[in-house]
Amino acid sequence: YESYLVVMETKNGSLSATYNEKGKLTSVIENYQNVKLPSSVIYSVYKKFPEWKIVNDKYLYTQKEGDVLKKEYTLKIKKDKDVKKLVVNPTGEILEEK
What we know:
It is a single chain. It is built from one helix and seven strands; from the N terminus they run E-E-E-H-E-E-E-E. By secondary structure, the chain is mainly β. It has a seven-stranded antiparallel β-sheet with strand order 1-2-3-4-5-6-7. The longest helix is centred in the middle third of the chain and has 10 residues. The radius of gyration is 16 Å and the shape is elongated. It starts with a strand and ends with a strand.
């Protein structure tokens, strides 16, 4: 069994794709920083945290055998000296707050 790994990198992130010996895509991992956030994500965060600012963001997308396993944004928000980390899906649902 052979598989082939293709890695593409930019200054803000990377994409890794794995193909089987027949050229079929078997998995994808995309990881980017400082991306343009969807308006649904921005709206949701500022609605729940109105005085906070988004200071950092990361986007993670993983797929295996055509099934999306993860598609989420990890955000760092700040208000004065307080910092929180949020995990938000593309529709704006806050999945986790740290």
